[in-house]
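Query structure, 295 tokens:
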């Protein structure tokens, strides 16, 4: 805060305010414009919200802070000829940065055109998501192997497989995680069909929510279950929905599945960028796992 306040008051060195606070930061923010548009943001409604918030903060609030602070710093440097030269350089930089900012806003406007979000192949997005995960029926037809990232559409596909194969008794999970909603959807689907869940490798984040949906839960000796808080894996972490509310839904589900309260609190207080891998004994004691298998 002292740094921000110091620049705003013009207390920092003119050259620092010019080259770092204005030129470098403005170039960085203009470069980051593209991350609010396709292909980084697929849905137009999301892109509009993210772009408006980003433009208001970075090309509105932040730019005013940059320009005012630099202008005030330049007013302090008028004692000699050399300093006046730098003042004129400052004015030129302010004009140039203003033009670039206007061009950036124009780029936002053009980038949000509906045609930019039209999918030439209606199935391309769905197929791309399906390619990130796999649902395979075992040879005997009694178990499904679920691997890959939890993506939109996974729950619906699993539901179709269960409807076509009523003799399925369990699901083997191997995943680094993914979409929170799909993890919850799979969990409730498994609970509804009273299926057992198995992990012999790694199951983290959204995957462990799905695992806990099992009526009987099994892990191998070398299995690893990873827990942490929810987070938004966006290039710009803008709260498009209430993460605490989403966590609350799954905390309630954990309790329905008779998971120990102390374990739940530990799992949902582990920072999003970290992963907590409890020992097998902890998992058994907390009711997360019912049986540890040799394989």
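Result returned for the query:
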């Amino acid at each position: 805060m002292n740094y921000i306040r110091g620049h705003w008051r013009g207390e920092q060195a003119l050259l620092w305010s010019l080259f770092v606070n204005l030129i470098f930061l403005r170039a960085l923010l203009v470069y980051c414009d593209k991350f609010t548009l396709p292909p980084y943001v697929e849905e137009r409604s999301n892109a509009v919200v993210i772009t408006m918030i980003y433009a208001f903060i970075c090309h509105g609030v932040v730019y005013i802070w940059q320009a005012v602070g630099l202008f005030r710093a330049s007013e302090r440097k008028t004692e000699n000829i050399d300093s006046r030269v730098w003042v004129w350089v400052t004015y030129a930089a302010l004009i140039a940065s203003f033009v670039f900012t206007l061009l950036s806003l124009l780029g936002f406007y053009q980038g949000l055109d509906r045609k930019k979000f039209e999918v030439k192949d209606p199935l391309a997005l769905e197929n791309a998501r399906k390619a990130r995960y796999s649902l395979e029926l075992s040879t005997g037809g009694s178990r499904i192997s679920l691997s890959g990232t939890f993506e939109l559409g996974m729950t619906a596909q699993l539901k179709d497989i269960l409807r076509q194969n009523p003799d399925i008794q369990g699901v083997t999970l191997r995943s680094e995680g993914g979409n929170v909603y799909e993890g919850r959807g799979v969990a409730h689907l498994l609970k509804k069909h009273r299926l057992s869940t198995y992990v012999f490798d790694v199951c983290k984040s959204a995957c462990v929510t799905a695992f806990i949906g099992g009526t009987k839960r099994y892990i191998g000796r070398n299995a690893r279950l990873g827990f942490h808080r929810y987070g938004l894996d966006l290039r710009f972490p803008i709260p498009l929905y209430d993460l605490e509310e989403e966590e609350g839904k799954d905390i309630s589900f954990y309790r329905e599945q008779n998971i120990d309260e102390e374990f739940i609190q530990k799992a949902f207080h582990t920072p999003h960028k970290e992963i907590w891998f409890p020992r097998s004994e902890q998992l058994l004691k907390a009711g997360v796992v019912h049986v540890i298998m040799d394989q």
